[in-house]
Specification:
Blueprint lengths: L1 H14 L12 E3 L3 E2 L3 E2 L5 E3 L4 E10 L4 E10 L8 E3 L9 E4 L4 E10 L11 E11 L4 E14 L1 E2 L2 E4 L8 E7 L1 E4 L4 E4 L4 E8 L6 E7 L5 E7 L4 E7 L8 E2 L3 E3 L3
Parallel strand pairs: 4-11
Antiparallel strand pairs: 1-11, 2-5, 3-5, 5-9, 6-7, 6-10, 8-9, 10-11, 12-15, 13-14, 14-19, 15-16, 17-18, 17-20, 20-21, 20-22
Length: 258
């Protein structure tokens, strides 16, 4: 409820011209400055649960006069001048932390904090674009509205329980679990419905899991199936992930077969 109220206030402020959005963008370069790469969260997807998540965005750049500063913003949508959502760097990283690797090269970094209890909603999960501005000491500069992309995902959980334990060889073993993910609209974890999840087994003394069957989650995210116990080993659920939810595997549950 608090989140919805906050967005109503921001929307009203925006309509009155009081909410500052990203500057108008168009790809342009002046001078010899060059961007060689952009890294978001070390190249990994940004997975956010119900607590704040801070990630680093960095850009290696080069110019004959040396690099002076850089700025970034992350945005979602198709139009950089009218994004569906956006986030600007944390204030404590303005200006950027630019580390020189020589007289012409530097890597500039800033941090961003995703706050699920403040502004994130479930609709924000998916692909985000990275806008980049870099300035050189001789006033050369470059700006790109979508130099790179990153993926924002709702953190997932997947426990497992196999029983009874111990169990006689040849008897039916029941394996349960529940696939949940962060719900940023309600600030709670909720079941992920109708998702295929693999039941896997690893024989004691080995290191490789083998898929036994695939089970779809229920309307509440629950998993339940039976299989035949044959040898000692570990049972787990394995979810491959989606564009909005990261892959997750349960820690194997050991079952003693007698």
């Amino acid at each position: 409820m608090r989140k919805r109220a906050i967005f109503a206030v921001l929307a009203a402020a925006s309509a009155l011209g009081g909410f500052i959005g990203p500057a108008a963008y168009a790809d342009e370069t002046v001078g010899d400055i060059q961007i060689t790469d952009v890294s978001v969260n070390g190249g990994k997807s940004i997975t956010v649960g119900l607590t704040d998540k801070t990630v680093t965005v960095s850009v290696p750049a080069t110019d004959p006069s040396g690099i002076w500063d850089a700025d970034f913003h992350l945005w979602r949508g198709t139009d950089p001048n009218n994004p569906d959502d956006y986030i600007t760097p944390n204030e404590d990283t303005t200006p950027a932390d630019c580390v020189a690797a020589g007289t012409t090269n530097s890597t500039c970094s800033k941090t961003f904090t995703f706050e699920p209890d403040w502004w994130l909603t479930n609709a924000d999960a998916g692909t985000w674009k990275v806008g980049v501005d870099v300035w050189a000491n001789d006033d050369s500069w470059t700006q790109r509205d979508a130099y790179a992309t990153t993926r924002l995902q709702r953190f997932s959980k997947l426990p497992v329980n196999a029983g009874p334990e111990p169990i006689a060889k040849g008897k039916a073993l029941t394996v349960t679990g529940k696939l949940t993910r962060a719900n940023w609209d309600t600030d709670a974890y909720a079941g992920y419905t109708a998702q295929p999840v693999k039941l896997q087994f690893r024989k004691a003394g080995t290191s490789t899991y083998t898929t036994i069957k695939t089970v779809n989650t229920s309307s509440t995210g629950d998993l339940r199936t039976t299989t035949t116990a044959s040898v000692d080993g570990y049972w787990r659920w394995n979810f491959a992930g989606t564009s909005t939810t990261p892959a997750v595997s349960a820690t194997g549950d050991y079952v003693d077969v007698q």
